[in-house]
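Course assignment 3, question 2. Fill in each field.
Student: A.L.
Task: Predict the tertiary structure for the chain below.
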Amino acid sequence: MRKLTLPKLEHHLFAAADILRGKMDASEYKEYIFGMLFLKRCSDVFQEEYEKLIKTNLEKGRSEEETVKRAEDPARYTNFFVPKESRWETLQHAHQNIGDELNKALLGLEHVNQGLDGVLAHIDFTRKVGKTKIPDQKLQELIVHFNKYRLRNEDFEFPDLLGAAYEYLIGEFADSAGKKGGEFYTPRDVVRLMVRILKPQEGMRIYDPCCGSGGMLILSKQYVEEYGGNPNNLALYGQDNNGGVWAICKMNMILHGIPDANIQNEDVLTTPLHLDAGELMRFDRVITNPPFSQNYVKAGMKFPERFRYGFCPETGKKADLMFLQHMLSVLRPGGIMATVMPHGVLFRGGEEKKIRTRIIEEDILEAVIGLPPNLFYGTGIPACIMVCRSRGAKPAERKGKILFINADREYFAGRAQNYLRPEHVEKIVSAFGAFQDISGYAAVVNKNAIEANDWNLNIRRYADNAPPPEPHDVRAHLVGGVPRQEVEEKKPLFDAHSLSPSVIFVERDKDYYDFDPGLAERADIKMRIENDDGLKDKEARMVAIFNSWWVEHIAILENLPQTADVMTARAALLSAFDHALTPCGLLDRFKVSGVFATWWSEVQYDLKSLVAQGFGGLIDGWIDTIEDAMEDRKENNYEPEEDPLVVRLVPEYLEELVAARQEISGLEQEKEAFEAQEDDEDEDEADEEDEEDERPNYAERLKSQLKEFKNAVKEDKAKIKMLSGSQKRKGSIKYFQAAGADTAPLRAQLEELTARTAPVEEEIRQLEEKLAPHNEILEKLKNAKRQYRILQQRFIERLREAREKMADAECTALALDILKGKLASHLESYIAAHRQEVVAAFENWWGKYSKPLKEIDIKRGNAEQKLRYVIAELYNVE
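Answer field:
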């Protein structure tokens, strides 16, 4: 049986949401999808254990009755026991009141499994959405949809596939839910940044007091695994105030294979629930993204001693520092915490200032990291990360100091949100680790300087990353030339690409360059730079180093099915990649690391599949993914000729495909050319039409005229047909002849009708003759498209046939070549981006200085003189 691939499962889960989408928004329907997925997964895993118990007991000679009795005993199951009313087989036979049946299934599953207490009961499939409930038809569609795939571990291409797909679904729901998505989801690039700053290790307790869907805890576990620790030797704790979000988190943990995570549901400010002998439990790492700018209620708070630095106003939405104080209160000695905070906590006055002052005075705050705007769901305002240590835990060299990192310009602008790219994360993490001044980016500030600024932590006061104003040389604007000083400031950029300014400039004097006279326009700059030998040699050298690195380290990937250690492979490859490519100087070390990290993010699940299935299984999974994309091509916009597997495995198919598409394209052009023709009537009407009006479609004009002519003679032709009919046809001439009637008037009528329709029939004949080529083209186009569809339908068969012919060594070589191609593509895109920076610098100078004021004045004077001449000619004025 084919294994479920991650893209296939992701698509399957998101398609389930499509069934409910439109009836309600994502913040409402997500719980139904999560509940249905959880039911299906638990039922499938239970059924596997159930079948094994039945088989084992029958083999031991027990009766069928005794065997079934044992199989229905919850104590015999290592996973969740699923009662009969919760089993998928039962739900499949539900046809009426399906919402009630699903609710019974959820409650039954929760009732017999202590670890699910409260997780499923809040999901109500009978709840009204607006004025109506979800109809049985929709719920039946959901059941049928989820029945499409079995969800046992053996069905997955790698072990954590279901957890990865669940994370994908959470992210998609957050994206669809918009502002409400911020209640349960923190963008994973931000989470990875925070985890890398905290560096959790095995044996630690990790705590998220506002855990949402649990992403920070899960990525902490993955970090420990990635860096060689034992992820099972890690205690995870979380709390969230929202019951629905808490349930999502619990399910997320279970589906990621972390059933023992201690996740609680309550307001952490009023009632923290993680206790140890009646006292607040302490943790090695605290990581969270609490809700921004909320009110809170002081009355009834448990453990008020947590807030040793003071209480913020209960109104005015200023609970941010209350969350931070709770985190500090639960740190173990030597513990570290990182939290997302709005910028207001850095500079607001009143009680917040007093709290901030005491935190700084006690030397707890280690770093303030300014993030770009529009990273988070629910708010477009910029936020920051505050990193603190327990009292006295700062390293000696950091005592009495705070690091400010201003990374608000480090982002990739998306359509609806901004994102941190791997090189941005790498740069922030490196700056935090170095704890040194970086001009325009980071600053280490001692406590005295902050006190002198009235305890204001506004990041720009200490690390101002505002770009310098664009320089403008007055002399260059007046008489031309490009200032050497401006060019010299860009020297590191040009040197990185081994480009000499002489490629674009010629000497003017000791202070200025001129543009090479051979450059006629701005577009010539890009062409000149891209064709420069020095630049091309530098890029070729970078590619050669990459190729050598790949050859030297390809064995790490080649041996993954045997070593089965993806994370160790990642560490070794990344380290070697940085050491090999950074010295070339074309890309800085952050971008070099970004190239690798971007690639790794793209292929990490492929590598997990490689470990689980081998190279042949990996290629089989790729083919399965292509098949799914082909089946849903309209939504995915899948293009086979852009797929690296197709290009390498069945290149002859692509040739046939291209030929088929070219035939269709050619016929469509013929069709358009025919329809663009004009006849005399078109030309007459065109003179009366505005230029912006569309020209009439010639074929449609002919069809319209043909229809008019046929309608004009329709009745006459019907009469002719009747009169000309056989003797048996009542009303025909022959009919009346047989009856002995006088048919002269009828023959005269037939002659008149024939004479009247003849000219129209000739017009119809001529129109049909004119339309014949168009009809022929349409028929050819129809056949060409049919052949193209047949070619598509045969495509997957040909892929599988080509795969079956491959030996193991060929599968290995092919898969590694594709993985290399993806990494090379990312490297090329980074190189191209750097090249464009170089081009942009010269184009900027062209825009500023290529046309000096003196030249502009001359041209303006010439234009004025020509205008005077035209006016004089026009009015006969000397």
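Instructor remarks: The first strand starts at residue 128 and ends at 129. The chain has a mean pLDDT of 90.
Grade: pending
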